[in-house]
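Checklist before submission:
- one chain only
- standard amino acids only
- sequence pasted in full

Submission:
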Amino acid sequence: MDRRLTDAGDNWKMLGCAVCFWSRLAHIIVYAIGVPVFRTLAFTVGLLAQAVLVLAIFRVF
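Returned file contents:
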């Protein structure tokens, strides 16, 4: 098999992990500051990043 076909999900996994990490870090900082709108936004971005990560692990795309 071509290596590009077998490693296709690795870019999505890397992106999902990075976005999840940074959004959770932003969530902690915004939570400490006390801004509810940005806290919800950071949490939602992290949740979507986890969904992308799950889809990449199961090779949906």
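Reviewer check: The chain has three helices and no strands.
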